[in-house]
Specification:
Length: 348
């Protein structure tokens, strides 16, 4: 299996480096010329909680890779959700009958990929380990977490099993017949992570703020209700358990509080104590993935006529921080709380 990693940043860099170290043929592709140059000259350095290592690389910019005119075998698409189409379109002429594209992304990007190359060439992936691009040739890795691969139609295929086997050099990659369940489960978790990025504080500190907890769980419930209307049963991972949150009328607060403390402990122990969303806003000063993650869920919710006042307000606040009209502040979380307690329903 020959692997082309498109987007050699946090996720793509970590997975690709582990695959290279295990002796696999990997080609890295990234639009950042300096990152490509450093990888080719000095290798790719992964700084993890248990070890730090560097691998030699073959790296290209998209323009350089397209000029090679080689048909692609297996593509790991590891770009931000909002860059899915932009990243994949130049390579469509290099996608053959047997090419497969795996979406190592946050969001429901599989639908967009399938619209470009066909569902039969698209493989879904849920990935939850934390990592950050630090500088050209250098990635911070938070440690092993959940990773599931699955066909969009729920079948357990040989090609997915082959991918699972090759990824064992990274960690316990698994196969699922409900990849959409994992993807929607993560979208409900994403709602919580976006909320933690409203304040310059660790994820664990926000989750442990008891007077905000009911509001935060209602925010997640709005997203889970949309999944329910879509006929998807979201699946939990890494101490996030959607069924403890939704349906609302079956929620046991004692059980949920215990589970959320376990989640907070996991967050606090991670080398990356603040989310990638926070890093986009506070460090990189760039737009988050919210337009490709929560905004589409608002649109699906509107189709089902589901009121989503907290998600709508959260999106608005994140966009204001992106634009620099407001700064991170605990007050934003309390605005969500006020919205929730007002009982006002909004259907976009």
């Amino acid at each position: 299996m020959e692997i082309t990693v498109i987007g050699a940043g946090a996720i793509g860099g970590v997975l690709g480096a582990h695959l290279v170290r295990a002796g696999n043929k990997v080609t890295f592709c990234d639009k950042d010329q300096e990152h490509v140059d450093v990888m080719n000259r000095r290798g790719l350095r992964i700084e993890g909680p248990d070890e730090t290592f560097t691998v030699e690389c073959d790296a290209y910019t998209p323009e350089q890779l397209v000029l090679k005119k080689s048909v692609l075998d297996t593509v790991f698409l590891c770009v931000k959700a909002q860059h899915t189409k932009e990243a994949l379109k130049p390579f469509i002429p290099l996608i053959g009958e047997e090419t497969k594209v795996v979406s190592f992304q946050n969001g429901l990007c599989e639908n967009e990929i399938a619209s470009l190359i066909g569902r039969e060439k698209t493989i879904g992936c849920f990935v939850n380990f934390s990592a950050d691009y630090l500088e050209p040739g250098r990635i911070l890795y938070g440690g092993v977490a959940a990773l599931y691969l699955g066909e969009l139609d729920g079948k357990i295929s040989q090609r997915v099993k082959d991918l699972q086997e090759i990824l064992q050099c990274w960690g316990p990659a698994q196969v699922t017949d409900n990849i959409w369940g994992y993807l929607w489960g993560k979208m409900s978790y994403a709602g919580l992570l976006y909320a933690t990025a409203l304040v310059d504080e660790t994820m664990a500190a926000v989750v442990r703020k008891m007077e905000l907890r009911e509001t935060l769980m209602e925010l997640c419930s709005e997203i889970l209700e949309v999944a329910d209307k879509e006929g998807v049963k979201p699946i939990g991972f890494d101490d996030w358990v959607p069924e403890f949150v939704y349906p609302r009328d079956t929620r046991d607060q004692t059980v949920l509080d215990h589970q959320l403390e376990k989640l907070a402990q996991r967050m606090a122990a991670n080398k990356k104590t603040k989310s990638g969303i926070w890093r986009d806003l506070a460090v990189r000063r760039r737009k988050t993935e919210i337009d490709s993650q929560l905004v589409p869920i608002l649109e699906i919710g509107a189709y089902h006529r589901i009121p989503m006042p907290l998600t709508s307000l959260l999106v608005s606040l994140i966009k204001e921080i992106e634009n620099g009209t407001i700064q991170m502040d605990w007050d934003h979380l309390y605005k969500l709380k006020e919205q929730y307690e007002s009982g006002e329903k909004i259907c976009i």
